[in-house]
Protein 1
Amino acid sequence: MSETVPRSGTAPARPSAGAAPRRLLDSLAPLLRDWLPRQRWFAGKGRPVTGFAPVAATELRPSSAEPGLLHLLVDARQPGRDTDCYQLLLGVRRTLPAPLSGALVGRPRGGPLAGLTVYEALHDPLLADVLLDLLRTPGDLGPLHFERPRGPAVPGSLAPRVLDVEQSNSSLVYGDAYIFKLFRRVAPGTHPELELSRALARADCPRVPTPVAWAGARPDGAAEPYVLGLLQPFVAGAADGWALALRALSEGAAFTREAAALGRATAEVHQALARALPTATLSRTRTEALAAAMTERLHSTARAVPALRPYAPALAAAYTALGALDDTRRIVQRVHGDLHLGQCLCGADGAWHVIDFEGEPARPLAERRRPHPTVRDVAGMLRSFEYAACTHRAPAWAAACRDAYCDGYAEAAGHDPRAERVLLRAYETDKAVYEVLYEARHRPDWLPVPMSAIRRLAAPR
Ligand SMILES: Nc1ncnc2c1ncn2[C@@H]1O[C@H](COP(=O)(O)OP(=O)(O)O)[C@@H](O)[C@H]1O
Ligand SMILES: O=P(O)(O)O[C@H]1O[C@H](CO)[C@@H](O[C@H]2O[C@H](CO)[C@@H](O)[C@H](O)[C@H]2O)[C@H](O)[C@H]1O
């Protein structure tokens, strides 16, 4: 466990050594037990939190300041689940101003924070400003680390606002110029979002916003540093592909022009990733391992979601076919890993940008960093067109978008993903299975959406 030390550089707020982390967490635990599971980004929904352990605690502004700012990395224990480490940024005030009432975490009854009000710091413009200043100034702060690559300076005092969207993490927009993404469930190791967006910048890929600063931590005893968040340019005036697709559907309009452009953008990102990072061939061993991993995910999901069980044997056929592929000329490379319409932003100039390279958030970092055939991302997008169409019962709309997307991809990549029939079917099935679990955990009302794909994919052919 680390205490804070003075930060090198010109830190705006000089932190003091805080209360002992264990005592701090003990006083917060009764509040967190209730508050944490209610957060959209909480990964262990449906199971109680039975205990907390501090990983790191850093007082970025002392609790005696009005407001104080506390950074916590906390292990949350839940029965039947591996321990998850969450990142919390907590404000501390004597009284909470009315505009911040929705950010309340609670009022500790005892310990070092007794009598004070604890709340989500991201909602407090004063504390969001402190965070921006830390990101603008490279240096260490106790276990925390702030880094900025060479490049133009990031201006300070930009008006902050918390992004109010469904997301797996939390994001703060600064003056419509930058966006800071604070990862919520964190783990030691290279983070694919930082790794891939920096690699794409090196490969001169204009499709992906380049990180301008990031935060990390190396708690005592950690084998590797944790990546905690990254600041990148905000694509102002952009609409995401999901919103645009739903709008087209509600207006009875086609979306094939946009789908083809998205296909071209995906291919460009893949080409840049292949330039920037190592590629390999899809050996027989890899193919078999891939099929085995997909099969395992199918069975574990079927155990967790009973609605999937009747379809499991028919779905498994897609993985058997994958395991039997014996052409080893295929390439594997780093891919986006969780590509869907919501990850594609159409800027004011009409150009598509791709964001959120963190992969499927529920999977371990090492697994998310594995190379795959590019068809994996294509399958994700194909599923997304079907998702959108499902909300309007418009299967023909989905089919037209899926074809246009593959046409666009083929035009830019020089090879048609539809030619990889076995791979594409396996990845699409795997994605639909992932979505079944995702929806069962996060949005049970949406479960029928991936289930309709499950029925299609399991149908005899
Ligand atoms: N660079 C950006 N420019 C504009 N909006 C962005 C940018 N990055 C993210 N967003 C917005 O923030 C939302 C959440 O970002 P995302 O990276 O998908 O977070 P999460 O992984 O938590 O779901 C996106 O849906 C998009 O609306
Ligand atoms: O939070 P992330 O954007 O990283 O991704 C997770 O949440 C997504 C939903 O917000 C989820 O995507 C699924 O729903 C989308 C519509 O809301 C749809 O376009 C996608 O095709 C579908 O997979 C994603 O799977 C999950 O990882």
Protein 2
Amino acid sequence: MLSQSLMPNRTERVNRVRGDLAMGIPCLLTNGPDRALLVPLETVTEDRFAALRVAFGVPELVISASRARAVMTFAAAANLGAGPVRIRPPEAADFAWYQRVIDTKFDYRSGSVGPLHVLRAGETQLHQAGLGLIKSAELIPAFALFRLAKSSPTLADLPLMSLNAGEALEELADRPVLAPVASAQLPLEVHDASRLHVFRDPDGQREHYAIEIGSPDLTKPILTRLHSACFTGDVLGSLKCDCGPQLRAALARMSEEGAGLLVYLNQEGRGIGLANKMRVYDLQSKGLDTVEANHQLGFEDDERDFRLAAEVLHKLGITNIRLLTNNPSKERSLAESGITVTERLPLRVGQTVHNQGYLSIKALKSGHFL
Ligand SMILES: Nc1nc2c(ncn2[C@@H]2O[C@H](COP(=O)(O)OP(=O)(O)OP(=O)(O)O)[C@@H](O)[C@H]2O)c(=O)[nH]1
Ligand SMILES: [Zn+2]
């Protein structure tokens, strides 16, 4: 009975794996009879990688399709689908070879890492789950997959977390659930009757906030802003984006109207985390635009899950909103999660000479109303 109650459930096991991957500890992925060790290339140490290579041979390299398109020649990348891309490394490939393929500073426009041998068939749930897990740990989406032959020694003695690939994929796709943790009055410059609510992901680490300005009338659509964290813009006043001015303009509008709700989501860098955002900024300083830079690293244009915002709204008993945004996908995603957006209110502020290109790419490639 005690051991049963201590048995981690699917969510808890996936979260433990995420923590291990972030520390560079491999995890065992299974899919029916297939077993493999998932090794994140960003965090694994050279010693650990070398020991695994001696024990299990040369691992497959797995990268996202967007990364493959960014680092391979146009012809070599032809006919790649959207799923993970499997690459067979040369027999002599060592740790340095894998690191070169994932090196975010390498400028592929002036050369290449050499021809990459893409394995066209055989992509399985192991690869999809591996990529999903690595991305959800905000790591560079690239990993080594050490296949374990049927005759490999049992791994029971290795202190590794084990996960079924199908189970991991279900967990990653599941509707997010947030738990309200704490809330208190917080007088703000824009309105002294404000309240901050903290919600927590079941991973126990990531938190998202709702800031209630005044006393919103729940019988009417609530003036709402969904704002994704931007440390550089919100806190430091970066001129590279429009986040800080948008945040302040949204709060000012709520203050003018006397009430509103700011949902502040910890989805830094459109969901890739601050470290990766700095990597894409570095690529942008070399001429890539905001979307190309995300792809170069191996991410999609936008990795955010706006269902989190719907979850916050539902938890606060809000289903009708007037949404301050220029981003059509926020509106779409909320509608799919049962939130009625009665009106979309544009939020065009904070244009600078430094973010002109960024904003025009958002309009051109991401369909923002700018
Ligand atoms: N990956 C990446 N993220 C960026 C870049 N510039 C800003 N961001 C992030 O983009 C997000 C912008 O969030 P929001 O302002 O809420 O959303 P939006 O998609 O611009 O939509 P609206 O502002 O509502 O119109 C934040 O998470 C920023 O950290 C960039 O060049 N690359
Ligand atoms: Zn920003």
